[in-house]
Amino acid sequence: MNEEELNEEELNDEEVSEDDEDEKLPFAKAEVVRLMKENLDDDKMIRERVKVEMNRFLGDVLKNVCEQLNEYPYTTIEYEMLKESTYPYTNIKRINQEKERILLHLEAIKADCNALAMDVTKTLKLKDVVDEDDDFKAFLTNTENIEDEEQEE
């Protein structure tokens, strides 16, 4: 075989593998690519693998939504059920904002806890036995001085 025949054979193999992928994809690749191009900048080029993986991703999303819809005990799927099942996908920005807000609030709580812990250690001195002994010694010294004064009188 010469080089031209090898190149033609490789091209044919690639076409066959792409056709196999197209058969396994949940949606028409052309439609997915058209929608992607509508929402991307004009100067963007989309690699083949991205087209295929986007198609598979959309298929996975559809499967996940359908699994949630199957959890309802009803035989008819209503719009409200669909709306509830697609909520994580349609409100991802709001969910991420809420997550960020909660994390910031937790950080503030953590800072408050640290400040309170420092206050407790400074003011209450829970394990500072030396200070208690010093106070007791001062008390004893003071009472001894008072006793000595009383004896002198």
Task: Record keyword descriptors for this entry.
elongated, 6 helices, mainly alpha, 153 residues
Q: pLDDT average, as an integer?
A: 80
**Shape designation:** elongated
Span between N and C termini?
A: 129 Å
Helix content: over 70%
Main pleated sheet? none
What share of the residues does DSSP label as strand, in percent?
A: under 5%
Backbone structural class: mainly alpha
Specify Rg, calculated over alpha carbons: 37 Å
Query: What is the oligomer described by this structure?
Result: single chain
Low-confidence stretches: none
Number of helices: 6
Task: List SSEs in N-to-C order.
Answer: HHHHHH
Overall number of strands = 0
Description:
- Helix 3 packs across helix 4.
- It is built from 6 helices and no strands.
- The longest helix is centred in the C-terminal third of the chain and has 32 residues, at 92-123.
- Helix content is 81%, strand content 0%.
- It has helices at 3-24, 29-39, 48-70, 79-90, 92-123, 129-152.
Which SSEs are present, and which pair or pack?
Elements lengths: L2 H22 L4 H11 L8 H23 L8 H12 L1 H32 L5 H24 L1
Helix pairs in contact: 3-4
Give a brief rundown of this model.
The protein is an all-alpha fold and 153 residues long. The chain is built from six helices and no strands.
